[in-house]
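If you are new to this repository, start here. Below is one unmodified record pulled from the training split, so you can see the exact layout before writing a loader.
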Amino acid sequence: MEPVLYTVVEGNTLWGIANFFGTTVEEIINLNDLTEPELIYPGQKLKIPVDRPYPPRYYAVRPADTLWSIAQRYSTTVNNLLELNNLGNPNLIYPGQILRLRA
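And here is the target side for that same chain:
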């Protein structure tokens, strides 16, 4: 199993990243030899262990992003992003939020 390389963005926490990718904080800490896991920072690259051989693509929302702009960039639809991420309000996304782009 190859880990996914994930770039931390503002607002991320190890717990949030682990929860989204279906792993544990401890697994991320061990895989990345983190001595101070509470001090992750934007731009930091983390190896994330995943159970699937071909993981779905994910996107970390950046300032000024909209679901429409993300959908256009990744050749999908706003409705698809809403369904994949269980979002109720298409206008309510925030920097650091991790979105699934495909199943």
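Two things worth knowing about this chain: The domain at 58-100 is CATH 3.10.350.10 (Membrane-bound Lytic Murein Transglycosylase D; Chain A). The longest helix spans residues 14-21.
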